[in-house]
Automatic annotation (TrEMBL):
Family of the protein in this entry: Belongs to the glutaminase family.
Protein name per UniProt: Glutaminase
Record's catalysed reaction(s): L-glutamine + H2O = L-glutamate + NH4(+)
Organism: Pontibacillus chungwhensis
UniProt keyword annotations, A-Z: Acetylation, Hydrolase
InterPro entries: Beta-lactam/transpept-like (IPR012338), Glutaminase (IPR015868)
Length: 310
C-alpha cells in the first residue's frame, strides 16, 4: 500500500515540535545566517504521484547550504563521469566535522574522503563545467529549476557575500588541495561559485520536490523526463546515507534511517524510494550542526510511516 502523508498529519507534527525551537543554536560563523528566526519552522512532503503537503512557514525561503553538495555532485558526475570524479574525491565517511582539514593531510595521496565534507564539496564544485563562476552557478541554477519545475529560483546575494568574505577555513582547504593537485584554477573563483551554490534559496515545497526527484531515481514526477541518470541518482542517495548528516550520519541512520542531507541553515532534504521527497526546516542546530526541529520531525515521520530503509 502506498504510504501517504496528509495535511492533518503535518499540521500535528509541526505543532508538536514547536517546543523544541528554543533548543540548539542558530549558525553564526556565516554572519548573515545569524539573522534567521528560530521560530521559522516548516515541513514539506512531495509524494511521487505529485501530491504535495506542507505545514509551518511554507512561504519562508532559506538557503540550501550543504544540501547543495548533493546537487553539485550530481552535476559534476553528469559533466565528467564517475571515474574522473572519484579519482579526485573519495567515497568513504570521514567521522570528522564537515569543515575538518585533518584527514586531508593524513590521507596519502591527499584526497578529500567524500563529496559531502567541505573539502570534497569544493573539489566537486571545481569539476563542474563552465568558464566562469557565473556560468557554473547558472548551470547549477538551471539544474535546480528543472528539479523544482520553478525557473524563478536564484541565490541569496547577501548570504553568499557574507560567506565569501569570511570563508577562511574553506579557503584553507582549497589552498591545501591546490598544492596537492586535487583542484585547479583560481581559488577565489572557486569560493565565489561555492558560496553562491550554498546560498541557493528555496522554500520548503521546492526542496521537497528536489528530494522527490532523487527518490524517483532521477526522473521528473510530472514530465517523466530523466533529469539525472538513475545510477548517478543512486550514488548521490548512497552518500546521503553514509555521509549526509555529517559526523552524526551513523546515529541518524539508526534513529531515522532515510537518505538525507542537512545544511547549516537548518534545512534537511530526504529522499525515500517509493514514497517521495521530504524537506524539514528549523534554524537552530544541535552540536553536530543538524537542525534540532528537523531531526524531531524526521524521527516522527519515519517512525509513524515506517520509512526506515533498514
Ligand atoms: N554544513 C554546511 O551547510 C556548510 C555549508 C557552508 N556554506 C560552509 O561551507 O561552511
Amino acid at each position: 500500500m502506498q504510504k501517504k502523508v496528509n495535511q492533518e498529519m503535518v499540521d500535528e507534527w509541526i505543532e508538536h515540535v514547536r517546543t523544541f525551537t528554543q533548543l540548539g543554536k542558530v549558525a553564526d560563523y556565516i554572519p548573515a545566517l545569524e539573522k534567521q528566526d528560530r521560530e521559522n519552522i516548516a515541513i514539506g512532503i512531495y509524494h511521487l504521484d505529485g501530491e504535495c503537503v506542507g505545514a509551518g512557514k511554507i512561504q519562508n525561503t532559506f538557503t540550501i547550504q550543504s544540501i547543495s553538495k548533493v546537487l553539485a555532485l550530481a552535476l559534476a558526475l553528469m559533466d565528467q563521469g564517475e571515474d574522473y570524479v572519484f579519482a579526485r574525491v573519495g567515497k568513504e565517511p570521514s567521522g570528522d566535522p564537515f569543515h575538518s582539514i585533518a584527514k586531508l593531510e593524513t590521507t596519502n595521496p591527499s584526497k578529500p574522503l567524500n563529496p559531502m565534507i567541505n573539502a570534497g564539496a569544493l573539489a566537486v564544485t571545481n569539476m563542474i563545467e563552465g568558464d566562469t563562476p557565473d556560468e557554473k552557478v547558472g548551470r547549477l541554477l538551471s539544474f535546480v529549476h528543472e528539479m523544482t519545475n520553478d525557473h524563478s529560483i536564484g541565490y541569496d546575494q547577501e548570504i553568499a557575500n557574507s560567506e565569501f568574505e569570511t570563508a577562511y577555513l574553506n579557503r584553507s582547504l582549497a589552498f591545501f588541495m591546490k598544492q596537492h593537485h586535487v583542484i585547479e584554477g583560481s581559488i577565489e573563483e572557486l569560493l565565489d561559485t561555492y558560496t553562491k551554490q550554498c546560498a541557493i534559496e528555496v522554500n520548503i515545497k521546492q526542496l521537497a520536490r528536489i528530494g522527490a526527484v532523487f527518490a524517483n531515481e532521477g526522473k521528473d514526477m510530472e514530465s517523466g523526463r530523466q533529469i539525472i541518470p538513475k545510477q548517478l541518482a543512486r550514488i548521490c542517495k548512497t552518500f546521503m546515507v553514509t555521509c549526509g548528516m555529517y559526523d552524526a550520519s551513523g546515529s541518524f541512520a539508526i534513529r531515522v534511517g532515510i537518505p538525507a542531507k542537512s545544511g547549516v541553515s537548518g534545512a534537511v532534504m530526504g529522499s525515500v524510494k517509493d514514497f517521495g521527497g521530504i524537506a524539514v526546516f528549523g534554524p537552530a542546530l544541535d552540536e553536530k550542526g543538524n537542525s534540532v526541529v528537523g531531526m524531531q520531525l524526521l524521527e516522527m515521520l519515519s517512525s509513524r510511516l515506517e520509512l526506515s530503509i533498514f
